Amino acid sequence: MTDVKTRIADTVKANDVVLYMKGTKDMPQCGFSSRVAGVLNFMGVDYADVNVLADEEIRQGIKDYSDWPTIPQLYVKGEFVGGCDIITEMTLSGELDQLLEQNGVAFDKDAADKIREANA
Q: Which helix (H) or strand (E) holds 47?
């Protein structure tokens, strides 16, 4: 059986965008996971969701992997981007748009602008 770090690395490398979260993109099971999934869903980002509640090894392993204590965790092109607060700030500042564009990840720019207008 592969160790948890290898499993996480494989998942992060195999998908352009990965969200390690509590619950799933369709049914988040915590407010922070729900907020990040909501942003990605609204912006039409195609991403893999990994439910840490379904796998205790992954739940602890992802914190060790990123050296980040909280979930959710967003990865883009294999790089750890951040948790809920960071993703929220990046969405509102437009940095998330830039990161997705730089990495060739498709998203709905109008939807991203709507999020910023709603939070202005």
A: none
